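Narrative of activities, Objective 1.

The group set out to show that a structural description can be obtained from nothing but a protein's sequence at a throughput compatible with the screening campaign. Below is one input-output pair from the validation batch, recorded exactly as produced.
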Amino acid sequence: MNDDLKFRIKKALRTVAKQKTVISYRMLAIEAEIPGPQAIHKLTLCLEEIFQDDHLKGDISLAPLAVSRGEPVIPRPGFFILLQKLDLYHGAEQGPEAIAKHHSLLQEIYNTISEK
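Output recorded for this entry:
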């Protein structure tokens, strides 16, 4: 993926992390100025790359801050499939286990941001 695009996404995610909140895929696409068509698709592919890069470096990724607009407010199933591939999660892609995993990732992000 385009390094400039990754930079803009990471910058927006850092702002969201400092606010200790989450951002919808749509709003993140707007904030990061991702051009259409298929801006959300481009965004999710880039988020996956960012998460994988962070994981390989041993860094906490801010990618889990990007969520679906629907209920529950968690990332789409593809995010949890990625976690499974990276051997970071062994539950379902939706439902209580996914919600709990997402919540734990958010707490880790917010705690790390508070320490900086």
